[in-house]
Design brief:
Distance between the termini: 42 Å
Number of strands: 0
Number of domains: 1
Oligomer: single chain
Radius of gyration: 15 Å
Length: 116
Amino acid sequence: MPLSIWYSRATNAFSKRAVWPRLDAKADHANDGESAITREHVLRRLGRVASATFNCPPEAIQEDTVAADIAGWDSLSHSIFIMNVEGEFDVEFDLALVPTFSSVGDMVTSILELGS
């Protein structure tokens, strides 16, 4: 199958099914009394998105977590994870930036920068 047809089908499949519904950010902020989003808050939400994407415990996602640490985190699931994260945080990563993420901590930093 030509790559362009596969990409078109994959893109349609992703847009229809793969993007996880946005999680409730207010649930994490309800009792902390802070208006600014912290690294810990972002990490907690990333853990929930990763849990839904990779079927892993949310606690498995830490700042130093890399793809090799999570079973099932391959190139396809990575693409799905990135789309889910973008939807969760209402951000859009620059395509040149995504390959530079060496750990979840890099993603947290980028989310905080895009959110400000």
